[in-house]
Amino acid sequence: MPEERAQRLQQLEHGERIFRDVGLVFYIVENDEETIAEIRQKLGRYPEFAHVQKPTKKVSGFNIPQKSLKKGMFIPIPLKAEERVLEDTEFAEYCSEAIRDMRLHSAYGKRVDEILDRVDEDTLVATMIAAAKQESGGKPLGQFVFHRWEPGPGAFSFSIFHVVQTGPGIAARRKLNMTEGQLYHPKNAAQLFLAYLIEKNGRRTADYFPIDKDWDAWARMYNGKYWKRINPHYVGNMKKYYAQALQDEAPQVRPEYWAGNNVEMFPIQYGMDIGTAIRHSNTVNSNAAHRENILGNRKNVFALRKLVFNYLKTRYKSDKWYAGRDKIGIGFDAQGVFLIFQRDNDEKEVIYLPSSV
């Protein structure tokens, strides 16, 4: 909408123009002769953008070559590194949430279900983690900025997956009704990844899963037929990151004793996902048990989250949870860390972490 877009345009104190998107700010290039160094110097005068003055290599770069700058171009201003970096387990949780949302999407739900007919959710999440790790060069997710100028198509790629904003990439973003800035959020990025695959491959999308059945086919589809010339290590890297993501590391449990009948049950609230509810219950019961943190780390949150979904599928034939009806509690006893799940007045189910049994 033109009026809303105009409101997002802003002129800074010294005359520079920026555009404030959701989660991202763009600098508007003043003329064809302007250099990246000049842009850094100009923006560095403002506290909000001071971090761009002294970038480390790639971590806070503009990721566009000098020769590609043109008057009026909107180029993303890099975020601070600490605003981007996240652990694999955190990203996996966002991917799972994205998959669930995409199954309900009017344009993409059917194709996502077709993928899930070929692989389970954990395998699809592992695929997404591997693809993101490949784009990050194997470094911690988010260490490199989430935009990059792609000289071939002459456009920026966005998100942790670096989906180019041309053809199927821009079609996917528009159908998801997202701005470029919104693609910086990991859940939105995961949705974009799935939408991009579907836009690119249509009814053939599911044929590429599981990706380890034909690595060359996946590489050709994702990177083009000349992928070996452009990125000869792509398949080797993907194999490594995919295997790492599929590994089920045994969570570390705490040996302290906290009887199950002392666990406070926490109702899942509207707008809250299972992972958030688990973290909240962990905080409540850790305080009650006078412990710093019963679960210990995010890996245990993610492990319990998967166990809850598996239980729901077995008990209720659906992995859907219900705000206001479902309650959870976190505790530990002589066997280890556990989660208690209860729906309505049904019998409570005690779910232990794998290494606790």
Key terms for this structure?
alpha+beta; single chain; Lysozyme; 357 residues
Topology readout:
Blueprint: H1 2-8, E1 9-11, E2 17-21, E3 24-28, H2 36-43, E4 74-76, H3 88-103, H4 109-118, H5 121-135, E5 147-150, E6 155-158, E7 163-164, H6 167-175, H7 186-201, H8 215-223, H9 227-230, H10 234-246, E8 266-267, H11 274-288, H12 298-316, E9 326-333, E10 336-343, E11 349-352
Antiparallel strand pairs: 1-2, 2-3, 3-4, 5-6, 6-7, 8-9, 9-10, 10-11
Helix pairs in contact: 3-4, 3-5, 3-7, 5-10, 6-7, 11-12
Tally of DSSP β-strands: 11
Spans of at least 5 consecutive residues with low confidence: 248-258
Q: Provide the residue-averaged pLDDT.
A: 81
Q: What is the chain-wise order of helices and strands?
A: HEEEHEHHHEEEHHHHHEHHEEE
Strand content: 5-15%
Judged by helices, strands and strand pairing, the structural class is: alpha+beta
What can be said about the biggest beta sheet?
Answer: 4 strands, antiparallel
CATH fold group of the largest domain: Lysozyme
Distance between the termini: 56 Å
- Looking at the overall shape, the CATH architecture of the largest domain is Orthogonal Bundle
Domain unit count: 3
Helical percentage: 25-40%
Indicate the overall shape: globular
| Total count of helical runs of at least 4 residues | 12
Query: What is the CATH domain class of the largest domain?
Result: Mainly Alpha
The assembly state of the depicted protein chains is single chain
Q: What gyration radius follows from the Cα positions, in whole Å?
A: 23 Å
Q: Widest sheet: strand order? A: 1-2-3-4
